Amino acid sequence: MKIDAYLTEHARKTPSRIALEEGNNSISYAALEASVNDIASSMREFSHCRFAILEEMGIQYIKMLMAVYRSDNIAIPMPIEMPIFSLEKILNAGHIKNIITTEVQYSKFGKSFFERFRTVIIVSDNEPVKFMRKELSTESNNPKLRLVLYTSGTTGTPKGVMLSDKNLTTNAAAIIQILGLTSEDKATLVISPHHAFGNSIINSHLMSGGCIAMGNMKFIGSVFSLIESGVTVFYGVPSTYRILLRYPDRFKKAFSNVKIAASAGGGMTKQIVKNIKELAPNIEMLPMYGQTEATARLAYVPKEDVEEFIETIGKPIPGVTLDVFDDNSNPVGPNVTGELVAKGDNILLGYLDDENATKKKIVDGWMYTGDLAQKLPNGYLKLMGRKDDLLKIGDHLVNPREIEKSIENNNKVSAVFVVPISHELMGTAISLMVIPEPETDIDTLFKFCRKNFPSHLHPKEILFIENLPLTENGKICNRLIIEEYHNVKNCM
Hints:
This protein is α/β, with parallel strands linked by helices. Helix content is 33%, strand content 28%. Strand 20 and strand 21 form a beta hairpin.
């Protein structure tokens, strides 16, 4: 069964139920179904073709996404927060010849941007769907392919992750089960819908027949107002919660009726959880871990274990098998570091037009996540950093995430980032960038490092910064950490 088929079912059973809210606008399941059918009817002459979707978060975006599914074509959401040259790179690498967009985006990007496409479809609220250009062509695509999501690019060049209907519905069903979602739930969508986390929110709540309220983290006041509109499930990456927690009085009021605060897109810290629970003691915290290549989620920490095991990723979601392999692809025992691998019906078909990358990612049916992990005696899994994040300092292989965690857990700091710098003798040394708390003291941090770390891990300098170096999707990015370091140094 396809995601859009659930939309049809809810439109038949509960036609007047509100499916989507955006500002002062809302749309029922019946009206959403009618709009999806209208847009899809203009695309039925195309046979399983790739369609870029160019639109910001909102009701119109979800209409177009569901219409591409309904017309049996392939949806490729464009991460619209990226600069134009990055979008063009994605379009060229993906050999994408068709696009569906809105009048607003057509005007914003300009006519020249759309000249690369054979087919350009414009969707408007009050006018019929129209073609700026139309050229039917034959494409040879994986017959199971339904959606291509681009990775966030936190660890390199974005890749097109190919996902099937089975991937989408299987993962959404597992999330519904974990969170206990029903048609009575109202969810927030304040993160990008063009990436895996945002897409999973859309899938899960449309499958369960609930409501999705959409907002924007650029306007904090409106986000709190959105939460106060009857939201029962709030979703965010760790930085989302950090930002909202800067306003404790408003946070306490807004989250008083929220049942679940779910997170993904990075590890939650004990301090964030503590701050949330102090302001909203009845809320259920539900941290989740995943990758775009897993259609979103792979693991979660059960609510009863959040406070004790927040620094783990918990256990696999239903339908997923996780293990930790050594360099010879053999399972390791508890407390031994290896690479986290995964199996399940939510695992990607492969990377778009990149067989070599696909063969490296999926080996003997296992997806290699690139994350280092350890199995704990209780069966939970703990991440130890990215495999490609390891630093070579002299003859030592160093995991920067372990250094950051140690400093954060034992000092009054908001966040710590390890930055590799060149060293005449060791080849590489480390500097630290720290987002301070009011009590943070540089000398105390230096003393802690000298006391607790071997000499090759003593930082050469500690720099204070004000903001998290984040991608547009709210994730911490190694490239941006280094860029931020150079920006700070240049201003000194």
